[in-house]
């Protein structure tokens, strides 16, 4: 009597917030499909929640987001020990540090299928030695993997153009995304007037005031300095407009102090800090126009969520956003780093509610068609099965039938 063990997959990210934000549904689906699923990240409450999902086992291994040779070696040693003990058939790493450590450990542990998903390239906005270090890390992760993925086609092009990964080894599934959008949770056709009014009352806004919103890290790479300059023009031209900024100041990528002072001193700017996942739909419901002046993205989850909610987005013509937003169809793209075009686009849409409605309706349809969780999950499930069939022909099904050799 010969009994096959279930296929074992180890999914990892540097910090547990990444896993919690994107992968609960996908990991649950893998477990339900018969995989033995192991989840690895730095310790934290967001990792602990996966212990409550049947079929998932968590492993807390500290990993530093920034380079730290000694601690990185300790993390690598722990990962190798874990993988040699578990003997996973697949290791799938997300985010840069987990990619480098995970692919190195998986190679040392002789894991047959080693996958690395590139969510974005911080090196796009870096120069000099730091950029070379980041490029080297990405090349190493790609070289140690058996397959690389990007979460948008424009990101895939940058990866290939920069020589970070050979074109034959990297791909983007479907239209992109690592986990898609819950289009039922972020549904712009649901009546959310109570959520809209509740948040506006909390901010002290009139019911019919024009609300512009940004959500994300208050960081240089997110274009917060550009938004501050643009806001001066917007506020002057639109005296009824308010600006909401949801997110914490990121000291690792600091915004000029003068820019933050513009926001903190303006009576129609509302800095509300981080918003819980439960409250994100209410933020979109209260918003009339979403602004994302970023310098780089992998795809931009907030742009996808806002679009699913029927919100038009004014953003920048950069990697990732050219996939998330169809310029002139679902939103408006402007040059990155330029305050005047950003302000002009926001003012034009603010003054044209019919155009906002048209863009929002098209955005909702585009996101539902191209980036729904169901579609993205199906693409990843099919990819895992394809890789298993190619690399592990004796394990073609998570629960193969028992073979009787009596």
Strand order of the largest sheet: 3-2-1-4-5-6-7
β-strand number: 13
- Summed up, the helix count is 16
Percent of residues in helical segments?
A: 40-55%
Which runs of at least 5 residues are low in confidence (pLDDT < 50)?
398-406
Distance from first to last alpha carbon: 6 Å
Give the helix/strand class. alpha/beta
Mean pLDDT: 93
Rg, rounded, reads 22 Å
- What is the name of the CATH topology of the largest domain? Rossmann fold
The helix-strand sequence is: EHHEHEHEHEHEHEHEHEHEHEHEHEHHH
| CATH structural architecture of the largest domain | 3-Layer(aba) Sandwich
Beta-strand content estimate:
15-25%
In CATH, the homologous superfamily of the largest domain goes by the name Glycogen Phosphorylase B
- Total count of domains: 2
CATH class of the largest domain: Alpha Beta
What are the SSEs and their pairings?
Layout: E1 8-13, H1 16-22, H2 24-32, E2 36-41, H3 45-48, E3 56-60, H4 69-86, E4 90-94, H5 96-108, E5 113-118, H6 128-144, E6 147-150, H7 153-161, E7 170-171, H8 193-203, E8 210-215, H9 224-237, E9 241-246, H10 257-265, E10 269-273, H11 280-286, E11 289-292, H12 301-308, E12 313-316, H13 321-324, E13 331-334, H14 339-350, H15 353-370, H16 373-391
């Amino acid at each position: 009597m010969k009994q096959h063990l279930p296929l074992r997959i180890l999914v990892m990210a540097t910090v547990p917030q990444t896993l919690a934000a994107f992968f609960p549904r996908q990991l649950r689906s893998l477990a339900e499909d018969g995989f033995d699923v192991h989840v690895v990240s730095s310790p934290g409450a967001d990792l602990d929640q996966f212990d409550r999902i049947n079929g998932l086992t968590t492993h807390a291994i500290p990993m530093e987001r920034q380079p730290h040779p000694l601690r990185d070696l300790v993390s690598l040693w722990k990962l190798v020990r874990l993988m040699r003990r578990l003997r996973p058939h697949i290791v799938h790493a997300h985010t840069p540090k987990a990619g480098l450590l995970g692919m190195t450990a998986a190679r040392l542990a002789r894991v047959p299928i080693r996958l690395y998903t590139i969510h974005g390239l911080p090196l796009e906005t870096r120069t000099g030695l730091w950029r070379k270090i980041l490029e080297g890390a990405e090349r190493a992760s790609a070289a140690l993997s058996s397959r690389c993925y990007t979460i948008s086609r424009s990101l895939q092009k940058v990866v290939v153009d920069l020589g970070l990964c050979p074109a034959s080894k990297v791909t983007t599934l479907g239209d992109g995304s690592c986990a898609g959008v819950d289009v039922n949770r972020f549904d712009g056709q649901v009546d959310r007037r109570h959520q809209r009014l509740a948040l506006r009352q909390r901010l002290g806004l009139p019911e019919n005031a024009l609300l512009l919103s940004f959500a994300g890290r208050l960081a240089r790479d997110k274009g917060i300095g550009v938004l501050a300059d643009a806001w001066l023009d917007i506020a002057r031209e639109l005296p009824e407009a308010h600006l909401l900024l949801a997110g914490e100041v990121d000291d690792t990528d600091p915004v000029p102090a003068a820019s933050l002072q513009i926001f903190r001193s303006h009576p129609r700017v509302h800095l509300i800090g981080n918003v819980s996942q439960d409250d994100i739909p209410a933020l979109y419901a209260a918003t009339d126009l979403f602004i994302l002046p970023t310098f780089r993205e992998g795809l931009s989850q907030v742009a996808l969520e806002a679009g699913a909610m029927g919100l038009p987005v004014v953003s920048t013509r950069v990697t990732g956003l050219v996939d998330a937003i169809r310029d002139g169809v679902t939103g408006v793209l402007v040059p990155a780093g330029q305050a005047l075009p950003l302000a002009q686009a926001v003012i034009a849409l603010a003054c044209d509610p019919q155009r906002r409605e048209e863009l929002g309706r098209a955005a909702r349809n585009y996101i539902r068609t191209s980036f729904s969780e169901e579609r993205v999950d199906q693409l990843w499930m099919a990819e895992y099965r394809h890789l298993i069939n190619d690399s592990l022909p004796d394990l073609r099904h998570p629960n193969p039938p028992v073979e009787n050799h009596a």
